[in-house]
Amino acid sequence: MGGTPVRILLARHGETVFNVEGRWQGQSDSPLTERGKAQARELARALSDEPIVAVYSSDLGRAADTAAEVAHVHSLPVIADVRVREIDVGKWTGLGRPEIAAQWPDGLAAWASTPSRYRMPGGEDLAEAQARALAFFAERMPDHLGQTVVLITHGAIGQAILVEAMGLTVEHLWLKQRMDNTQISRLEWSTERGLELIELSDVRHLEEVGSLRGWRTTDREQRA
Fold first, then answer.
1. Tens of pLDDT, residues 46-71
2. 13 flagged as catalytic
3. What pLDDT, on a 0 to 100 scale, did the predictor assign at position 89?
4. Where residue 211 falls among pLDDT bands split at 50, 70, 90?
5. Residue 91 — pLDDT band, cuts 50, 70, 90?
6. Residue 12: inside a domain
7. Number of domains observed in the structure of the chain
8. Is residue 69 part of a domain?
9. Which long-range CB contacts under 8 A does 160-167 form with residues at least 24 apart?
10. Has residue 224 got a pLDDT over 50?
11. What's the CATH number where 166 sits?
C-alpha cells in the first residue's frame, strides 16, 4: 500500500508541577502549571492554521489536557492511546535527583549515558517502550495517508520516536536536543519508509511564555 505520507506534528505536553520540582513522572501524573497551560494554548495557536484531521494523545492527564487545547481549535476530539504514554520509571516515580542518587548511586549516570542498557528499578525497558509507540504508528497512520495529524506525548517516549525518525536507535536517545515542553517536531510516516524527521524542536511559539530545559528555568528574562 502506497500513498502520500502522513504529516505528523509531534509535541510534548505542557510544563507540569513535577517538571518544575525535578521529579520523575513516568506513568503517574502531575497537573500542568499555569505556564504549562499557557504553553498548551500557545501550541494550539501555533497549529491553528494547520489542516489537522486528528489529534492523538497519550492517555495520561498532562498530555490529554495539552491535546485538548489543540483539539478545541479544530473542533476535534482527543483520541487517547495508551501506547504513547510515558515510559514507566518504576520506583523512581515521584522522586527527585537527590533521592534517586541516594538509593541508586549509578542510576542517573546510566540513564543519561546508556539509557538503552538501563532499566529503572521496577520500570520499563526503553526498547519495549519504543516498540509500543511504533506499533501505534503502524496501526493508526495508514488511515491518514496524505493528511496531517497531531500527537501529544512525553519526554522519553517522544525522544524514542524522534530517534527512530532520524534513522537512529534508542542507544542514541539523548544524542540530539531534548524535547522541551510543547516543542513541535514535524515528521512524516509512510508505509514504505516508516517515520522520517522533517523538522526538529520548533519552540518559536514559546518566546513569550518560556520553558524548562533540564531542571533549569529558561524564561526570556533569565536568559538575558
1. 999 999 999 999 999 999 999 999 99
2. yes
3. 97
4. confident
5. very high
6. yes
7. 1
8. yes
9. 160/87, 160/126, 160/129, 160/130, 160/133, 161/10, 161/130, 161/133, 161/134, 161/187, 161/195, 162/10, 162/187, 162/197, 162/200, 164/130, 164/134, 164/194, 164/195, 165/195, 165/196, 165/197, 166/197
10. no
11. 3.40.50.1240
Rounded to whole angstroms, the Cα distance separating 92 from 159 reads 19
Dihedrals φ, ψ of 54, to 5°?
A: -155, 140
Tell me which residue range forms the domain holding 152.
6-223
What is 58-100 written as a DSSP string?
Answer: -SSHHHHHHHHHHHHHTT--EEE-GGGSPPP-GGGTT-BHHHH
Nine-digit cell string for 140: 493508526
15, 86, 124, 164: which is the annotated catalytic residue?
86
User: What is the rounded CA–CA span in Å between residue 26 and residue 168?
Assistant: 23
> What pTM value is reported for the model?
0.91
Verify whether residue 21 is a known catalytic residue.
no
Beta bridge partners of 56: 79, 151
Contact status, residue 213 vs residue 74, Cβ threshold 8 Å: no
Coil, helix or strand at residue 40: helix
1 in a structural domain: no
- pLDDT bin (cut points 50, 70, 90) of residue 184 is very high
144 inside domain: yes
Residue 197 in 3-state DSSP? strand
